[in-house]
Design a protein that fits this description.
305 residues, 13 strands, two-stranded parallel sheet, 20% strand, globular
Length: 305
C-alpha cells in the first residue's frame, strides 16, 4: 500500500513538472487568467487605487506608464465591445513566455501591446487589432544610470560613437532603430530585467524605454534607478497593436469585441487622449528627435540648433 502511494506521488510530481506552463493560469467560466509582469501590475493597481478600468477617463497622475495605459485601454475596449468575462492576474517576471502561450492558446490576450513587425510574424496564430499607438506616435526616452555622465552629455548623432546599448532582436522595431545608430556596441539580451540591471550597473550605457513624465521620466525598481536624458527622444517608427490567441477558446469572441470597442474609443478620441494625458505621446515643441535623419522627416522645432 505504501509503495503504491509512493509511486502515485511520484507520478503526480512528474505530471506537474511536465505540464504546460499555461496550466498555472487559473481560469473559470467567467474569469480568464492573464500573465503580467510584476512591476507593471504593481503600478497598474496603484494607479487604479480601487477603481475599475472602464471608469478611468483621466490618465494623468502618479504611477501611469505606457504598459498601464495599454492594460486599461484593452479592458475598456473589451467592455465596450460586450466581452463580459473578468480577468485574474498571474504576476511574475515574465518576458517572452507570453508569446509562446499566445501561440499555444494558453493565454487569451497580451495586455502589453506588440510592435506590428513582431505581431505580423505571429499572424497565423494570433489576431492583430487595429493600431492603438499609430505609426509616428511612439517616442522613447534614452534611459541610463544617473551617474553615467557621458550619456547625459549626448547632443548629436555622432555622440553615440562612444556609447553602448542593449536590447533584443526579438523586439524587431527596437533592434532595428538601435542598429541604425552609430553605436560603439549593441548588445543582445532577451530578458528585460537583465537589460535594466546592465544599464544600472553601467556595464551598458543606455537602453530605450517608454516615457514616464508623471514619474519625472525616472524608472525605479527595488535598488535600480534609471533616468531619461532630458528633452531628447528616439522615434520608433512602427505602430503598436493588441494580439489575441486564435487557439484560445474565447479568442474569436474577444477579438470581435476588442475591435468594436477600439473603434468606439478611437472615434471618441479617447485613445490618443489617454496616451497624451499620460505624457507618452509628448509635446514635440521642446524636444529633439535625435534619430530623425535616420528614419523620416517630421515637422518639428528643436531646442538644439
Amino acid at each position: 500500500m505504501n509503495k503504491c502511494i509512493k509511486w502515485l506521488l511520484v507520478t503526480v510530481v512528474i505530471w506537474l513538472v511536465g505540464a504546460p506552463v499555461y496550466a498555472m493560469a487559473i481560469q473559470t467560466e467567467q474569469s480568464i487568467g492573464i500573465f503580467i509582469r510584476d512591476d507593471v501590475y504593481h503600478d497598474y493597481t496603484r494607479f487604479l487605487a480601487g477603481r475599475q478600468p472602464q471608469d478611468i477617463t483621466d490618465f494623468s497622475g502618479q504611477f501611469i506608464r505606457r504598459d498601464v495605459v495599454d492594460m486599461i485601454i484593452a479592458q475598456q475596449a473589451l467592455h465596450l465591445g460586450g466581452f463580459d468575462k473578468t480577468f485574474n492576474y498571474q504576476v511574475g517576471k515574465i518576458n517572452f513566455r507570453n508569446t509562446k502561450l499566445l501561440e499555444q492558446g494558453g493565454l487569451l490576450i497580451s495586455f502589453d501591446t506588440y510592435w506590428y513587425e513582431d505581431a505580423k510574424s505571429l499572424a497565423d496564430k494570433v489576431y492583430i487589432s487595429n493600431a492603438v499607438i499609430r505609426k509616428g506616435e511612439y517616442f522613447a526616452g534614452i534611459f541610463a544610470s544617473p551617474h553615467n555622465e557621458k550619456v547625459f552629455n549626448l547632443h548629436t548623432l555622432s555622440d553615440f560613437n562612444q556609447l553602448t546599448s542593449v536590447s533584443t532582436p526579438r523586439w524587431r522595431t527596437d533592434w532595428k532603430t538601435l542598429s541604425q545608430l552609430p553605436l560603439k556596441e549593441l548588445v543582445a539580451e532577451d530578458e528585460w530585467l537583465s537589460q535594466v540591471r546592465m544599464v544600472s550597473m553601467q556595464w551598458i550605457d543606455f537602453m530605450l524605454m517608454p516615457l514616464m513624465p508623471q514619474m519625472d521620466n525616472q524608472y525605479v525598481l527595488e535598488d535600480i534607478v534609471l533616468q531619461a536624458i532630458p528633452n531628447i527622444l528616439i522615434l520608433l517608427d512602427d505602430s503598436r497593436h493588441f494580439v489575441i490567441s486564435k487557439r484560445h477558446p474565447d479568442g474569436a469572441q474577444a477579438f470581435q469585441a476588442l475591435q468594436k470597442g477600439l473603434k468606439i474609443l478611437r472615434q471618441q478620441g479617447a485613445i490618443e487622449k489617454a496616451y497624451r494625458q499620460a505624457g507618452f505621446i509628448p509635446d514635440l515643441t521642446e524636444q529633439l528627435i535625435i534619430n530623425l535623419p535616420l528614419t523620416r522627416k517630421l515637422a518639428q522645432r528643436s531646442f538644439l540648433k
